[in-house]
Write a structure and sequence with these properties.
The protein is of the alpha/beta class. It contains four helices and five strands. It has a five-stranded mixed sheet with strand order 2-1-3-5-4, sandwiched between helices. Strand 1, helix 1 and strand 2 form a beta-alpha-beta unit. It is globular.
Length: 163
């Protein structure tokens, strides 16, 4: 299976690092040994579209705007769901995830499957640390994606324990 996982974010802005941390956790688990490509990306829309070009199945992880439930995880199917305008703010990505998905949809450039995992953030100011809620959700999403990779690749291989 042709699968690429893209983690988006910015390590300098607190919870905005969530997607990048999911990607790093998956690497630590050894998902690349399953033939899955893991990419870290800032979330800028044109670069995102380039990241998924030529790949049939893409999973994207990113932080979402605060709405009262830090750490809450939402999943969208880009082919079936229009992304809400207020969920993926462009503040740290300029022209971001939502815009990339909608532009790719309009240009018929979405991959065959594009699933987006959003982790609701709490603090996005420059220099802020990762919140505990988001840290727990990063681990939760990474575990979910590890299991998804195992299932979809049909490989019984055990991933490395990063301990």
């Amino acid at each position: 299976m042709d699968l690429r996982i893209i983690g988006c974010g910015n390590f300098d802005r607190g919870d905005d690092a969530a997607g990048l941390l999911v990607a790093r956790r998956l690497r630590a688990f050894g998902v690349e040994s399953f033939g899955v490509e893991v990419i870290e990306q800032s979330g800028e829309s044109f670069a995102l579209m380039d990241c998924w070009t030529g790949c049939e199945h893409v999973i994207l992880a990113d932080a979402t705007a605060p709405s009262g439930a830090p750490g809450q995880v939402q999943v969208w199917n880009a082919h079936g769901d229009k992304l809400p305008e207020n969920v993926f703010p462009c503040s740290t990505h300029a022209f971001g995830v939502r815009e990339a998905v909608e532009l790719a949809r309009a240009m018929n450039r979405l991959p065959q499957t594009l699933r987006i995992y959003g982790i609701e953030g709490k603090q996005f100011s420059f220099g802020e640390p990762l919140s505990q809620e988001v840290e727990r959700s990063v681990e939760f999403v990474a575990q979910q994606l590890l299991e998804l990779v195992r299932t979809t690749t049909g490989r019984a291989q055990t991933a490395r324990n990063p301990a």
